Hints:
By secondary structure, the chain is of the alpha/beta class. The protein contains twelve helices and 17 strands. α4 packs across α5. The two termini are 22 Å apart.
Amino acid sequence: MTSDAGNENCLGWAARDPSGFLSPYKFNRRDVGVDDISITITHCGVCYADVAWTRNVQGHSKYPLVPGHEIVGIVKTVGSNVQRFKTGDHIGVGTYVNSCRECEYCDDGLEVQCSKGAVFTFDGIDTDGTVTKGGYSSHIVVHERYCYKIPENYPLASAAPLLCAGITVWTPMMGHKMNQPGKSLGVIGLGGLGHMAVKFGKSFGLKVTVFSTSLSKKDEALNLLKADNFIISSNNEEMKAMEKSLDFIINTASGDIPFDQYLSLLKSGGVLSLVGFPSEVKFHPVSLNLGMKSISGSITGGTKQTQEMLDYCANHEIYPNIEIVPIQYANEALERLIKKDVKYRFVIDIANSLK
């Protein structure tokens, strides 16, 4: 292996087995190609995907596994064909780093839906056959197309969670026109995704109701995040009082919910958007058909919408609520994330702690 700018030894933190325990790990990044950017990583958000993949929840994790797909940093070097970035620019990388660049979805800037499958930022198989390694690391080399400009006035640490949590709720909100002032939005679950759905909803002028199983979330929902309404979802009277009152619901929770009950809260033509992963989606056809209602699914978003969201957040001063931690705290952060003990997203300070 040569060790030029793009291929110096990269220091990361990796899981070696399904225990998910992370520890320091050295590996080589590829050389910077003509279309590539080498990025010095300053921060990386901690997503539930980091828990699932390091612990082999899906059964196909490849070890050693370096997680992290909410990556921000500073451009170190650029390939000769790179147009949009120069050394020193603030830059971000989200949940995927490659795609076929030929299908209808790629052509539309919806690379995450690439018909041949987008290459995930970690534990994916890249076009050269190597296994991708994520942002719990000192630097990364990525094709320009999958990189985002972080506006200069936007704090790098705050930008990290936008690249998965933010875009995951932004995409269905845009797709279903949930940005119409005066409409009403229900948000199920108040974690990394849910708190961003509340922030976007309020920014769009929606009336936002938070649904949670935990009364302890009430104060933060109403006072910290400025939601309009808070409902304990196990309280049948409170739920019944909300029937036919919502235009949209975003379900960010991965626990199982009573879909029939939530569908009853939608107005005619209402949409329930699923961005979490419950064990099953079960409802009676009557719940959909009688009110012309829809259930739709979504994951992150394409490059076009991701850049639009970053620019919107900078222009409207929308910032995720974060807890910044050193890389040495990564294992504790994942344990706390499992317990939902974070308001609302951990961000690893790679620049000041990964040595």
